[in-house]
UniProtKB/TrEMBL annotation:
The keyword Hydrolase appears for this protein: yes
Record organism: Buddleja alternifolia
InterPro entries associated with the record: HAD-like_sf, HAD-SF_hydro_IG_5-nucl, HAD_sf, Pur_nucleotidase
Protein name in UniProt: 5'-nucleotidase domain-containing protein
Needed co-factor(s): Mg(2+)
Amino acid sequence: MASFRSRLFPFGSSLLSTSLAHSGLIEGVGGNILRRFSSVVTTEQRVLKFGKEEKANQILEDEVAKIRHEFDAAKERFRKIPVALKEMPKIDPKGIYVNKNLRLDNVQVYGFDYDYTLAHYSANLQSLIYDLAKEYLVNELRYPDSCMEFKYDNSFPIRGLYYDKLKGCLMKLDFFGSIEPDGCYFGRQKLTRSEINDFYGTRHMGRDQARGLVGLMDFFCFSEACLIADIVQHFVDAKLEFDSSYVYEDVNRAIQHVHLSGLVHRGILSDPKKYLVKNGQLLRFLRMLRENGKKLFLLTNSPYYFVDGGMNFMLEDSLGSQDSWRELFDVVIAKANKPEFYTSEHPFRCYDVEKDTLAFSKVDAFLPNKIYYRGCLKTFLEITKWNGPEVIYFGDHLFSDLRGPSKAGWHTAAIIHELENEIQTQNEDCYRIEQAKLHLIQEILGKLHATVANTEESEEYMSLLWELNEERQKARNTMRGMFNRSFGATFLTDTGQESAFAYHIHQYADVYTSKPENFLFYPPEAWLHVPYDIKIMPHHVKVSSGLFRT
C-alpha cells in the first residue's frame, strides 16, 4: 500500500493521507479516493460561490437603494422651480447662430434669395398654395372631386420632413437617419412602433430604403406635405389602390405648376395685405450694408414682376416717394433656376421691364438699375470678380439655395423663420424644467444600467427601471407637446437628438438665424465664433440636471 501511494503521489503522501483521514473519507484507493476528493472540492466551491452571490446581491440591493433614494429626492425637487433656473440666461430668439467661424469684416458682398428670405409671408400663404394645387389635381390630373373638400391644416406639418415614395409614409428623421417613433404617418394616421417595424423592419433607414425618400426642406413644403398626407388618407379611407410614388409625383407637379404658372404670384399680389408682411427693419439692414461699403445682389427663382410688387409693398412705408428698392442692389437676377444656376453654363439675358422681353445681346457686364434673367454661377463670378470667401448668401432652402454656394466657397446664412418661436418655447421655465428632469433621469438610468451590467436583475431593479422609464416618457411628451402636435420640434427629436433637418443646417449653413435683419444687432465687422460648448446646434438650450441636486 505504501509503495502504491508513493507511486501515485510521489510528493507529500503522508500529508494527503492525514488530510483524508481527518475528513473521514478514506474508503479505498485510486479512483475512489480521487472521486470523493473531487466531490469535496466541488462542494466547497459551491459554498464559496453561493457566498459571493449573496454578497453581490447585497451590493446590488444597496446600489439600487441608493439610486432609488436619489430618484425620490429628485422627484421632490421637481415640484419646485429652482432659483438657479430662473437665473439662467435666455437664448436670444433673434440671435445669429454659428456652425463655422465667420469674420464679417472679411465679407464684402451680400447676396439674398427673395421668398422667405427678404420677403416675409403670413400663414395665409400656405392655404393659398394648398388650395391652388388641390384644384390642379382635380381639374387637370382628374383626381376625385371629393378632394376639393380638403382643407389645409397648419398644425400638421413642419419643415424638414421626408416622404417615402415607396411606402407612402411621411416621417421625421433624427440626426443619424432613424425614424422618430412618434413622428411617422401613413396618411394622417400616426404609426405605432410595431407598425413602423412592420413597414421597415427597423427604425434606422438603410441606404436602399433611403433611396425612396424625398426631403421637404423649404417653407413652401408645408402645403406639399399636408396635401400628400391628405391624399394618401383619402385613398385609404375610400379603399382605393394607389402607388405612393404617383401621389408624390402628382402633388409635386401640382405645386410646381402653381409656382411656374404664376398662379400663386398673382394671388399674392392681388391681396398683398393678406399674404405679405411689411418690414421696415429690412430696409434699415440693407441701407446699413450699403453705408458700410458692401456690395449687394439679389438672386431669386421668382419672376421680376412678382419681386417688384412684393418689395414695393413691403417697403412702401419706409422708402421715400422717389426711391426705388432696386437702387439698394448692385445686381438683380430673377428666374435664376436654382439649383441648376450653380452648375449649368446657361447665359444671362437682360430683361426689359417696360416691354416684358429679353434682349438678344450678350451680357458681359452687370449695369446699374438693370434686371437679368437666368445665367449661371460661372459667368456671374467671371463678370463680378467676387471671390468666394468674400461673399455670403442668404436663403431659406438648404438644398436649392445653400448647397451650391457652400460648395462654391461662398459663406452661407440659412433663414429659418420658425427658429424664433422654437427658441422662445425653449426659454420658458416649463420647458427648461422638463429638460432638466429628462437629463437627470437619463443620468440615473445610466447608473442603474451600469449597476446590473453583469448581475441578475432583481425585483427592486425592475420596479425602479419601470418608474424611471415612465418619468422619462412623461418629460418627453410634455416637451414635445410644447411644439407641433404631430411632429414635435423642428430641430430636435423626442429623445433629445438633433433632427435630420438640423443635420442639413449644420452641413450647409455657416450661420443661421430667423431673419436677415437680425444682423442689425451685430456690428458689420463682428467676428462670429462657434460656441466652445457646442453640441450640434448652437441655439439649443443647455439646462444642467444639476439644477435639481441642490
